[in-house]
Amino acid sequence: EISLPDGVRSIGDRAFAENGALSRIELPSSVEEIGNEAFSDCTALSSIVIPAGTQEIGYQAFSGCTALVSAELPEGVRLDERLFFGCTALADVRIPSDLAEIPSQAFSGCVSLEQVELPEGLTEIGDRAFLESGLTSVSLPAGLESLGGNAFENCPSLSGTVVIPEKIAYLEQSVFYGCPLLEEVKLPEGLQGISAYAFWGCASLTEIVIPGQVAYVSRDAFRDCTSLRRVTIYGENVDLNTSAFSGCTALESFSGLAGSTAESYAQRLGIPFTVIGEAKAPEMETMEANISM
Prior knowledge:
This protein is mainly beta. The protein has helices at 261-269, 284-289; strands spanning 2-3, 10-11, 25-26, 33-34, 47-49, 56-57, 70-72, 78-79, 92-94, 101-102, 124-125, 146-147, 160-163, 170-171, 182-186, 193-194, 207-210, 216-217, 230-233, 239-240, 253-258, 273-278. The protein has a four-stranded parallel beta sheet, with no helix packed on it. A four-stranded parallel beta sheet has the order 14-16-18-20, covered by helices on one side.
């Protein structure tokens, strides 16, 4: 156990890195900055409370702390990437209510982290932020504006319903790749695109409704969603990649506008199509061009 004296304002880069004997440390209220990799690979450290006055925590500050069970972050703090990367025992983390960004890979590999409360003011979740974590559910704040690629990739316990907030314009690559228990995804009306592999392997997903402003559904976006039965596409001229729904062995119906690319796509797959409205009559060359190979 280490207790740092009052007056210490900064903990330098790699100050305690790879200290396998450090199980507990008490940080004084004077600490304002924790440097890059300051406590990385402290494999016996079991908990950490960051003082209220801390303004910045650096890159990989606690990465590889495999015995770390709980962490408390203060209001007003700025976080760098890979903060708790590979903290396999981390089960309880307090995220401050004023945090605007969860940086890239912040909780990647935190397989014991089943629940996390995301603050309402959060606007950005970085790439791979919760990659291969133990999350069982997630509630995305209404004000979220950016959801990074691979953010929830390979979260095998993530289940129930995920509501994508209205300000999300694009679903990035592999954002929910390999979430086999995810049952429902509600997409916002303003969504404009679904990138490659976004929902690959979401084997419990049974239905998807794609809003009218979506311009494209990229390759393998819903590949191997083996329980997916119904797809509704409200757009008239959506660019649907030929492999977007590959491996969806339960798929039994498409719904969309008459004369739309969705209707042509369903015909190519040999899947029954239900008309839910009329589209403007497109030129055949345009339709064929928007069913990409």
